[in-house]
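New to this. Comment on this protein:
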Amino acid sequence: MLAATPDFSESPVRVHNGIPRQEGFGYPVVRPERITSPFGPRWKSTEERYDFHRGIDFYGQIGEPIFAVAEGEVFRVYGEGNRVYPNGGNTLIIRHDVVTPFNFHGKAIGKIYSLYLHLDKILVEAGEQVCKGQHVAAMGQSGSTRFTHLHFEIRLGTTCSLEYQRQHSRKVCAAYGFDPHVHPLLFIDGPHQGRIAISHQPGPPYVVTYSASRADLHLNEIATDKGLLNFNTREGIDATSTAAMDDFDFGWVCLRPERFSGRNKLLVYRLEFSEPPAFVQFTDIFGDGLRREFH
């Protein structure tokens, strides 16, 4: 008796990711594998809600060294209780020149900013030149957080979020017109294993589940015949306000990240469709991915 033919086929894919991978960057922490929150959609356990996380959280102990990820100039230093990053506590921002400028949302990107939040101490001052790997701060628990960690971000071209630009249309940064936060692993990434998996179950709702190992926290784009979500460019995502970004009901799909912490072995996303998709394709920040077509 012949085995039943599966109702799907699966194949690797390669797409253009939109942002060239940058070389010459290092890690901001001693133990970069200690990630408690990746970039993108997540379940924020400390507040029991969904949240679009625009950085990466590295956990550790108070006083652990924080390093500059590349050569640059200290752009801003903010202390505890500042009005610019009121929830970020002691915050350090370093500006870096891009060796080979590239386009993002139609703008030439010649500078990027690395941001370090929730610090215990900051060891450098605004205007100071720093080098890659320089000890610039100490990990802490300042600002609005319940545990010791570094919230680390990369922003392209400007430090101003799209929400801030919309609210302050006369500011110079309002001319950018995009949300500048992108996946930090484009800049500080080491080898990734490519251990991802897709599963599905009939509905309604029709559920597709994506899972990735802790060494593969690079997901950037979810594409289907119903619609597309790109975490870096925000295509398909309303970035005009924090509330809009944190709403993962996109009409054609509901995205449900499962809890993820320093103890989880897998990052898991559930996609709930009201109607079965013809295909679902997941690609990472480097353009590598996996496509599942349903028959």
Summary: The mean pLDDT is 94. The radius of gyration is 20 Å. Helices lie at 162-167, 185-188, 242-245. Residues 35-188 form a domain with the Glucose Permease (Domain IIA) fold (CATH 2.70.70.10).
